[in-house]
Inverse folding.
């Protein structure tokens, strides 16, 4: 389903569907491919699921404005979608 709203300021909701229960990993990456935040790393599903990202990195500090990639890996496949952080 992708991130919404996008671009976002305070937080973004990432919605996704899993057909079966599976090990699931969802992370946010900068454009250099470095993981800035791991949102999910455990077994999830099945069904329509969501997670909210508050725009902070693993250290708890707010990430810089710009483009990031949200990558979901589960059920033997992965999907990446862009997200834009815009804070005044």
């Amino acid at each position: 389903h992708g991130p919404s709203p996008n671009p976002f300021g305070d937080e973004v909701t990432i919605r996704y569907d899993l057909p079966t229960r599976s090990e699931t990993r969802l992370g946010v990456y900068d454009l250099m491919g470095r993981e800035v935040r791991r949102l999910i790393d455990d077994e999830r599903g099945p069904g329509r699921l969501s997670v909210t990202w508050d725009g902070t990195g693993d250290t708890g500090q707010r990430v810089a404005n710009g483009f990031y990639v949200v990558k979901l890996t589960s059920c033997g496949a992965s999907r990446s979608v862009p997200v834009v952080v815009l804070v005044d």
The chain is about 0% helix and 60% strand. The first strand starts at residue 2 and ends at 4. The radius of gyration is 13 Å. Residues 23 and 43 are 4 Å apart (CA to CA).
